[in-house]
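Input (structure):
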């Protein structure tokens, strides 16, 4: 039974990847507006119904790995070592998300297409912003749960928003310049480091041996 489930999951992932590859090809060759869901399904050699089993809208294929990245960030927080400083935990969460993008969206061209469309196509912009907000909300909730005596809801949201916003903005800027995947990945890591500097003081003991509290006054 386990083997059958594994085969079904592999087939599902292959079909999903075929749809992403078809979308990248068609968006590049024809343009986003000139490509329909039916076109993508046809090139991937699946039915239109199969497309909608994987993606709810045409915009969603541009965010194929978005949910996985959020899951990985939340997992990094939940699996933190005992007593791990907040900065270390957030750095690991950021690294996992960046590595996921570097292994998929960046080399296959999907990230570059998304970066271009997010500033020219309102439907894509709305979907990307919704996904970013969902990511920030889930990661902030996990961080708040991990550090209940240190963070309040607003401060957790601010820290996560600063980190994810910096990484996303750096990626879009690099991609719009036409930089190669390795440069974009480096830009994302650099942006994460800059954002994480704001957390350094929260994990640094004061003269009495206590860490500063980031709770709002």
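Output (sequence):
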């Amino acid at each position: 039974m386990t083997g059958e489930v594994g085969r079904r999951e592999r087939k599902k992932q292959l079909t999903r990847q075929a749809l992403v590859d078809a979308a990248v090809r068609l968006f590049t060759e024809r343009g986003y507006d000139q490509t329909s869901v039916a076109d993508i399904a046809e090139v991937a050699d699946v039915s239109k119904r199969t497309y909608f089993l994987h993606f709810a809208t045409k915009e969603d294929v541009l965010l194929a790995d978005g949910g996985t990245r959020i899951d990985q960030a939340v997992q990094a927080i939940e699996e933190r070592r005992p007593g791990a400083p907040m900065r270390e935990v957030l750095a690991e969460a950021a690294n996992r998300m960046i590595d996921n993008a570097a292994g998929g969206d960046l080399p296959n061209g999907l990230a570059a297409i998304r970066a271009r469309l997010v500033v020219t196509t309102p439907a894509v912009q709305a979907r990307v912003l919704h996904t970013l907000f969902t990511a920030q909300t889930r990661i902030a909730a996990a961080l708040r749960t991990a550090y209940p005596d240190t963070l309040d809801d607003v401060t957790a949201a601010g820290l996560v928003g600063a980190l994810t916003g910096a990484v996303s903005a750096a990626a879009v800027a690099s991609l719009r310049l036409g930089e190669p995947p390795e440069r974009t990945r480096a830009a994302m890591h650099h942006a994460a480091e800059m954002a994480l500097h704001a957390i350094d003081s929260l994990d640094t003991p004061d003269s009495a041996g206590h860490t500063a509290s980031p709770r709002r006054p």
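Notes: DSSP finds nine helices and no strands in the chain. The two ends are 56 Å apart (CA to CA).
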